[in-house]
Fold these 3 entries.
Entry 1:
Amino acid sequence: MTKILIAEDDLMISEIYQRKFLEKGYEVLTAFSGDQVVEIVKKQAVDIVLLDLLIPKMDGFSVIENLRKGNHDQNIKIIVSSNLSQKEDRDKVMALGANGFITKSQYTPSEMVEEIKRLTGE
């Protein structure tokens, strides 16, 4: 079973995404801050991180950098889900090692699941 870590500080959005990914057969973990993402990934195997850029304690850019440069599984797929959709933001996350970028406001939760599948080749 694919394990996804949803890093989202908006509780309502996090719960909606959790429900949709669980319905599609994913194992779901959640984090509400960047430092939680790093701690969870240190402690257990995660296949995908669905990462908001604007999260407390460590922003998404720093999380990507930490996961890609640290002693973490380099096969983790990092998909950024944010409304910061300027070209510079997209370019920066991709340069840091993200596997994809989704503009959150352009997808329903169900469409988000399908886009994650597409971006991760599932």
Note: The mean pLDDT is 91.
Entry 2:
Amino acid sequence: MISILANWLLSAIAIVVTAEFVPGFQVDSFSTALIVALGLGVVNAIIKPVLLLLTLPINILTLGLFTFVINAVLILLVAQVVSGFTVVGFVPALIAGVILWAINHLVNFVLFPVKAV
């Protein structure tokens, strides 16, 4: 339970940091970033697997790079739902998706390492 809350909080921090560096990707406050992190988590858990299955052929052809496009579309979807979270266009969503992916993987690697069994 603590790791889920820590991951949620760190994802919100990553969203705020990303908003500082990517023009066209804006978050009004930290509480909005918490809502965005929750929304992205729900969307990634429910909608993303379906989209990955539907786009499997193109994902195989692009060696998995099309997943970044799916992430950008999901970020744009969350931006439509959450007030105070603005993404102006597809390119900022794509750049933000790549940055958020990198930050989350780095944080998970450092804070939540895989334990050998």
Note: Residues 2-111 form one domain.
Entry 3:
Amino acid sequence: MAEFHSLPTEPEGMAATLVERFNSGKVSAMMDMYAPEAILIAKDGRTITGHAVIAAELERDLKLGLPLEAKARHVFVADDIAEIVLDWSIDGTGPDGKHVHLGGSAADVLRRGSDGRWRYIIDNNQGTAVRQPA
């Protein structure tokens, strides 16, 4: 089993953690980044709760087998809560041979746990983008 860096002790480290774990292709590596009560906002705007359902949603993007690039644009911290605005993209040729371009500016909320590590409580990878029903 691959070893990953620990979850970040500063919210600014979440972008590097996200890239490392996403690019491993392992959804199990991604799930450590989510607090137990975390929610993920789907591309169509639905709120997804529960680690099993979040994992299934993340698996779709991981199955593309394409690398994620991400960079934090802004990080705002208030005590144990942080908002991170993150610009991200996934580009390349998908398993079906078609070009894939996904991306956006995420507006995510993180919380520092009792262990001092930051985790997602709201993963909103499309930020303020208008969602279209699936």
Note: The beta strands are 34-41, 47-49, 68-78, 81-93, 99-112, 118-123.
